[in-house]
Design goal:
Helices cover 40% and strands 18% of the residues. The protein is of the alpha/beta class. Strand 6 and strand 7 form a beta hairpin. The relative contact order is 0.13.
C-alpha cells in the first residue's frame, strides 16, 4: 500500500522503537584487539601513524590488557617486534621469542582471555618478506616448514588460536598437520584466507617495522580486483583445516565479505586494518568527523555485510562506547 497508509517513519519515531526493530547490532563479543609486543621493560612506544596504538613490552602490555579484561573483550591477537631479524626469521619460532613470552604472561594473568597469534615471518625477516627468499624470489614450500614451527611454538606457549597471515599456498594444512602431530588438536586456526595486497597496510608496517626491503608482496597476497579468486582461496583453506576464515582488509572488501557469508558456514572474521584506523583518527583530530559515530557505523557495516568477528584497533573505545550506550 502507498503513502499515507504506509509510513516507514513510524518505526523510527524514537530510540526505543529503533532498538526494537534494529536488524544488525554490534556487540563487545564481536571484537578482537590487535596488540604489538616488543622486548624490554617499561616500554610503551607510540606508533606515530596510529594515534592511540603502542608497541608494548610484556609488563606494560599486561597493564593495557586489564582494560580489555574489564570491558569483556573476548581476546587479543599478538604481533611481535623481535630484538633481531635474520634471513630465516629465527625469533618467530624461538620458544623464548617475544610473542612466546607474551603468550605465557597473558595466559598466567588473564587465563580466560582468548590469545590469538599472528603467524607470519615478515616482522622477523631482515628482508621484510613473509617467506624464505632465494635469488629475489619468495619460496613457497620451504617457507611452510618455518610457519608450521612458528605455530607450534605459539601453541606450546599457550596460544588458543593461531592466525597464518602469510598467504603461502598450503600453509593452513602444514600448520594443522604440525599441531595435530604434536598433540595440539584443540588449537584452532583463523586463516587470513582472502588477504589482499592492499595500500591500507602502511601504518601497520611502521608499527611492526615490516616493510619489504625490496619489491612488494603482490606475488603472494591477492590482487585487489579479484573476487572469485577469494572464494577459491577460502575453499582451499577450509579443506586444509581452517576453523575461521578472514577477509583483510575490511572496508574496501565488504562485497567479498558478503559473498563469503552467503557461501560458507564457517565463522567469518574481518580485519579493520591500520590504514582504515589511521584515516578515521586523522579526520577526527581535525574535527572533520565525529569519531565515535563514524567508528560505530563502520564496524556495524562490517557486521551487516556478514562478519562474525572484527579485529580492530578501536576495540577498547568501542567496548566503552557500547557500555555507555547500554547504560542510557
Amino acid at each position: 500500500m502507498p503513502f499515507p497508509i504506509v509510513r516507514p517513519r513510524r518505526l523510527r519515531a524514537n530510540e526505543t522503537i529503533r532498538r526494537l526493530v534494529r536488524e544488525t547490532s554490534l556487540s563487545v563479543d564481536d571484537l578482537i584487539y590487535p596488540v604489538f609486543v616488543t622486548h624490554g621493560r617499561g616500554v610503551k612506544k607510540a606508533v606515530e601513524a596510529m594515534p592511540g596504538v603502542y608497541n608494548f613490552s610484556v609488563d606494560t602490555l599486561l597493564e593495557e590488557l586489564a582494560a580489555v579484561d574489564e570491558l569483556g573483550i573476548p581476546g587479543i591477537i599478538l604481533f611481535g617486534i623481535p630484538r633481531q631479524k635474520d634471513e630465516r626469521a629465527s625469533e618467530a619460532y624461538d620458544d623464548q621469542g617475544i610473542v612466546q613470552q607474551a603468550i605465557r604472561a597473558v595466559k598466567e594473568k588473564f587465563p580466560a582471555m582468548l590469545v590469538i597469534t599472528d603467524v607470519c615471518l615478515c616482522e622477523y625477516t631482515s628482508h621484510g618478506h613473509c617467506g624464505i627468499v632465494e635469488n629475489g624470489c619468495i619460496l613457497n614450500d620451504p617457507t611452510l616448514e618455518l610457519l608450521a614451527h612458528t605455530a607450534l611454538s605459539h601453541a606450546r606457549a599457550g596460544a588458543d588460536m593461531v592466525a597464518p597471515s602469510d598467504m603461502m599456498d598450503g600453509r593452513v594444512g602444514a600448520i594443522r598437520r604440525e599441531l595435530d602431530r604434536a598433540g595440539y588438536q584443540d588449537v584452532s586456526i583463523m586463516a587470513y584466507a582472502a588477504k589482499y595486497a592492499s595500500a591500507y597496510y602502511g601504518p601497520f608496517r611502521e608499527a611492526a617495522g615490516s616493510a619489504p626491503q625490496f619489491g612488494d608482496r603482490r606475488s603472494y597476497q591477492m590482487d585487489p580486483p579479484n573476487a572469485r579468486e577469494a572464494l577459491r582461496e577460502i575453499i582451499l583453506d577450509i579443506q586444509e583445516g581452517a576453523d575461521i576464515i578472514m577477509v583483510k582488509p575490511a572496508l574496501a572488501y565488504l562485497d567479498i565479505v558478503r559473498q563469503v557469508r552467503d557461501r560458507f558456514d564457517h565463522p567469518v572474521a574481518v580485519y579493520n586494518v591500520s590504514g582504515e584506523y589511521a584515516m578515521v583518527k586523522a579526520a577526527a583530530a581535525r574535527g572533520w568527523i565525529d569519531e565515535r559515530r563514524v567508528v560505530l557505523e563502520t564496524l556495524t557495516g562490517m557486521k551487516r555485510a556478514g562478519a562474525d568477528i572484527i579485529l580492530t584497533y578501536h576495540a577498547i573505545d568501542v567496548a566503552r562506547w557500547l557500555q555507555e550506550g547500554a547504560g542510557r
